[in-house]
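Posted in: Protein Modeling Q&A

I'm a second-year student putting together a small comparison for a lab meeting, and my supervisor asked me to include a predicted structure for Glycosyl transferase family 1 domain-containing protein. I've never done this before, so apologies if this is the wrong subforum. The sequence is pasted below exactly as I got it from our records. If anyone can share the structure token output, I'd also love a short note on what stands out.
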Amino acid sequence: MRLLFVHDHPFFKNKNGIVYTGGSFPKKLWDNYLINFGAIDVYGRNSKSTYSKMSISSADQVSFHLTTKYNSASTLFKNRKTIEKELHTLMINADVVLVRLPSVLGFIASKVAFINNKPLWVEQVGNAKEALSSYGSLMGKIAAPIFEHHNKKIVSKADFVSYVTLSKLQKDYPARNTAITISLSNVIIDRILGVEDLNKNRFSSDIFRLGIIGGFDAKYKGQDIFLKAIATLIPDVKKNLKISLVGKGNYEWIIDLAERLNLKDNIEFIGPLESGSQINEFLKTLSLYIQPSLTEGMPRATIEAMAMGCPVIGSNVGGIPDILSDRFIHKKGNIKELAAHIDYLYSNRDELKREAVLSLTKAVPYLKTNLDKKRLDFYASMNKILKDA
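Accepted answer (user: helix_wrangler)
Welcome! Here is the predicted structure, written out as tokens:
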């Protein structure tokens, strides 16, 4: 069978035809689909931008069709009909159309799939309204309810729906009764630290290391909320905090904010970490991991942190409440509440250690072996429907 995968992601193709990604679509991702489909056509955006840290996305049996017709809202409006024609051509040979939502190209592809009576699979990876509203622009706030309406309508008509959360997105975007649905995270981990391998010193040391992973250009990750929360703590606590920030992009805005909050001496910028092993080694040094996002699906870094025995506190968006202890979830953007959670765990180290052990347990469902089994069951149900159609 042949799968058409559609998303807004900007891919970069070099002169040798090798396709690269900024990180969201590495080569190994396609294995999740190739265990059921013999070939994949990927329709995304063609990017001319390169980064110092990029991963290869090219893979055997995966063909990339990167449109040059969508690099801004104005070009999208101008070229929409052309984009629809490009998608129509690709759909002729597709057995299933997979759209990862929310995404503009996903919305357009859904319409074309419905017109062509193609089986539609929606991967719901975030909340459309929440995501657009979090960017801070007036245009985003205006577009948010429109995107939300279209997203709900598409999911309600889809044949197959996979959600990255356990319950949140299922409630936001209910599928029709006859659809095949599954909770299937796109976060996959290969290893969980054993309880006996936890370095307990990281939880009892005078230096309390807090960490956050997220691109510095993606301000919805809440780095500013994090720093503002730290700034409200008493001096005797703040002087012992070491804040480690990991990610790519321009972090001058964070330096400016840290200077205004008198936190510059507390912060270290690590930059992007290339491999999973580098990320794991970093996470194993933290006393506490923070996920103060304003919007999310199921944040990869949170699961990775839990797999390395990090206690985690986070906001109430996306799939974060599915995996964290209720008492350590703050309302998004609530600086006072986040500060109180940090202060409590700093002052209660036994509780911190218990949360570390609990994190290891909660990471188990995201092991590749466990997710692969769920994925195969989902494909078996999908294939039966396709065969009987």
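A couple of things worth pointing out for your meeting: DSSP finds 16 helices and 15 strands in the chain. Residues 195-366 form a domain with the Rossmann fold fold (CATH 3.40.50.2000).
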